[in-house]
């Protein structure tokens, strides 16, 4: 009896419930898939959804990329097992018909996976940023009118801030002298003053750096007033800064439509 009770206890502890966003799916065998999720409480989790590729799968489309789902999982040795999955918001249904929003959303998912290097490391702030970015990209209200590249850059800046990679924008990255400063150096960590400026530093328009500050702080009225050149320059700096810290490029970023 003691052994049976002990086994029952272990079994119950192995089951857990969480909500998450599906970042990526991979085929496994004839009918299964490996699902990579960013969860609310357990960070990045990789799990097997058995039979999901069958016509009569109990999971339906709830474990497709961009889906915000409520899940019950069983802890496995190397991969967890999805026991139940209920769709909360299928953001993909709203994104697939719009190339600009779909590619921006793909970059959000890839960035989230790359910034969670350790599995099961809790990252509530990043999870909330991902859900907020997908909601803004797929929204049916005033948010839907926002430039998807602005939504993406705001997400990238805030996600880097959560990860500890945020570029210096209002002070010198090297000596902390208050700005604004005219030069920007990715290897140095962001904006740099004249005394600290490396030889290869860029000189973006002041409006581009101001736009990055607006996106980071959530001043959407100011961000949406930025002209096309400032948006393109800011996007280039954000992408360069992110990929410098990731040490290799994101596959999705070159596909993202940018403001003309």
SSE inventory with pairings:
Elements: H1 2-14, E1 15-28, E2 32-39, E3 43-49, E4 67-74, E5 80-90, H2 91-95, H3 99-115, H4 124-138, H5 148-163, E6 183-185, E7 190-192, H6 206-217, H7 220-224, H8 228-246
Parallel strand pairs: 3-5
Antiparallel strand pairs: 1-2, 1-4, 2-3, 4-5, 6-7
Please, could you describe this protein's structure?
This protein is an alpha+beta fold and 260 residues long. Mean pLDDT is 88; it is low at 1-12. It folds into 2 domains: 2-92, OB fold (Dihydrolipoamide Acetyltransferase, E2P); 97-255, de novo design (two linked rop proteins) (Up-down Bundle). A hairpin with a 5-residue loop joins strand 4 (67-74) and strand 5. The chain is 39% helix and 21% strand. It has 8 helices and 7 strands; from the N terminus they run αβββββααααββααα. The strands form 2 sheets. A 5-stranded mixed beta barrel has the order 1-2-3-5-4.
């Amino acid at each position: 009896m003691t052994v049976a009770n002990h086994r029952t206890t272990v079994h119950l502890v192995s089951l857990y419930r969480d909500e998450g966003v599906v970042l990526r799916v991979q085929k496994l065998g004839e009918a299964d898939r490996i699902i990579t999720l960013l969860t609310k409480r357990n960070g990045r989790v990789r799990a097997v959804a058995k039979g999901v590729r069958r016509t009569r799968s109990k999971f339906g489309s709830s474990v497709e990329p961009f889906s915000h789902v409520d899940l019950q999982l069983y802890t496995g040795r190397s991969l967890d097992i999805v026991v139940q999955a209920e769709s909360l918001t299928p953001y993909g249904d709203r994104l697939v018909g719009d190339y600009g929003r779909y590619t921006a959303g793909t970059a959000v998912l890839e960035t989230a996976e790359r910034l969670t290097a350790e599995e099961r490391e809790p990252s509530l702030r990043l999870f909330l940023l991902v859900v907020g970015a997908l909601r803004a990209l797929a929204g049916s209200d005033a948010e839907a009118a926002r430039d998807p590249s602005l939504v993406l850059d705001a997400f990238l800046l805030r996600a880097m801030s959560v990860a500890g990679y945020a570029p210096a924008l209002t002070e010198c990255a090297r000596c902390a002298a208050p700005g604004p400063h005219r030069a920007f150096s990715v290897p140095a960590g962001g904006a740099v003053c004249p005394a600290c400026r490396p030889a290869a530093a860029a000189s973006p328009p002041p409006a581009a750096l101001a736009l990055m500050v607006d996106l980071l702080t959530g001043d959407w009225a100011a961000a949406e007033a930025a002209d096309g050149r400032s948006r393109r320059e800011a996007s280039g700096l954000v992408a360069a800064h992110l990929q410098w810290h990731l040490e290799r490029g994101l596959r999705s970023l070159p596909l993202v439509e940018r403001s003309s």
